[in-house]
Amino acid sequence: VAAYDRYMTFEEIDAHVHETVAANPDVASLLDLGLSYEGRELHGIKLSNGAAGQKSVWFDCAIHAREWIAPPVCLRIIDEVLADPALRDLADWYILPVANPDGYSYAWTDDRFWRKTRRPNEGSSCIGTDPNRNFDFLWDSVGDFCSEVYPGSSAFSEPECGAIGNFVASNADSLVLYVAVHSYGEYILYPFGHTVEPVPNVDDLIAAGTAAADAIEAVAGARYSVENSASGLYFTYGASDDYAYGINAVSYSYTFELTGGGSGGFNPPASLIQIVVDEVWPGVKALVEYTLAN
Ligand code: 0X9
Ligand code: ZN
């Protein structure tokens, strides 16, 4: 079981992933997506009942480096799915607790509010790309190197994004649900980020998102707001959720924006971790149950 009374470093989380796989060889296996720019392992977990032809669901956390409240949610999902065979009968679960390990590590050592990757930009002293603008769906080159939302020199210029994108595209046959866990704002966002035009299955996206928000509210009283990304937040191009949905890898795709706290919203006290994972897990469960049934 992961620690929920303090934030874990990338090394601690990676070690926890390996220990979990080693301790549960019958249901857990290592999800190895290769290396980050600086050579850190993109390691997640696959949880499965081992049956062939299962549907699957995906969760990634902390593609934005400073959003430390996200990895505990991924770790909590792993704990829950390990403990309940019925959840593994619903689907295979792919969970990547730290999607941007270089940035996450840099946020520990140097800059608590770092957002981007750590790959240098040729011709600039400003480092990094916004990984959630780097996916190869309606990727847009607009933005300067120093911007917090710099989209990168090309779609999938960031190995972290390419690894996730490649996995999602290669597993389109089985995937039904993609969730990127971010902070903050208490939103459940659905595609697209580039338009407020309703997508074809918008009613299903809202119904599933609302099932999740209701389950969260039942625990917490916090009301996550279910919104189109563009109208609920702002316009974006090249985000991971829009990629998964836009290439038709999944019919259900979301970004969870968790509860914020501390300076600027991105530094919730560690005392909030347990509260957030306790309230978000029932939402995740309800979302997976809904999307697998519909
Ligand atoms: O801007 C983002 O990437 C996300 N918000 S955050 O504060 N965590 O940076 C929202 C992304 C929502 N999804 C799309 N716009 N497609
Ligand atoms: Zn984010």
From TrEMBL:
Protein name from the UniProt record: Peptidase M14 domain-containing protein
Cofactor(s) this protein requires: Zn(2+)
Any one biological process term the GO annotation gives: proteolysis
Domain Peptidase M14: 6-291
Family as reported in the entry's similarity comment: Belongs to the peptidase M14 family.
Location of the active site: E257 (proton donor/acceptor)
Full-sequence portion shown in this chain: 77 to 370 of 370
UniProt keyword terms in alphabetical order: Carboxypeptidase, Disulfide bond, Hydrolase, Metal-binding, Metalloprotease, Protease, Signal, Zinc
Residues passing through the membrane, by range: none
Organism of origin: Cloeon dipterum
Gene Ontology CC entries for this record: extracellular space
GO MF term list: metallocarboxypeptidase activity; zinc ion binding
